[in-house]
Amino acid sequence: MKHFDIGSLLVILITFVLFTIALFFTGFTHDLLLEAGVFLVSVKLIIVKRGVKLCSFS
């Protein structure tokens, strides 16, 4: 996990926990797809941030 900073790991963890909670409260409905979309967008933004960070060091 040395490739991610603490803020990125915290965002992934919080988003995953909220996604898991939403899974138990809403079940497999349309709302679950929205929650999965939010989770994927969060992960994608963190990956893009890491890519920009690596490019700026080069």
Question: What does this 3D model show about the protein?
Answer:
With 58 residues, the protein is an all-alpha fold. The chain has one domain. It is 84% helix and 0% strand. The radius of gyration is 14 Å and the shape is elongated. The protein starts with 5 loop residues before the first helix and ends with a helix.
Helices, strands, pairings?
Layout (H helix, E strand, L loop, with lengths): L5 H21 L3 H28 L1
Helix pairs in contact: 1-2
Helix/sheet category: mainly alpha
How many structurally independent domains? 1
Counting DSSP H or I runs of 4 or more residues, the number of helices is: 2
Arithmetic mean of pLDDT? 77
Residues in helices, as a percent range: over 70%
Report the span from N to C terminus: 21 Å
Portion in beta strands: under 5%
Biggest beta sheet attributes: none
H-E order: HH
Q: Tally the beta strands.
A: 0
Radius of gyration: 14 Å
Low confidence ranges: none
Q: What shape does the CA trace take?
A: elongated
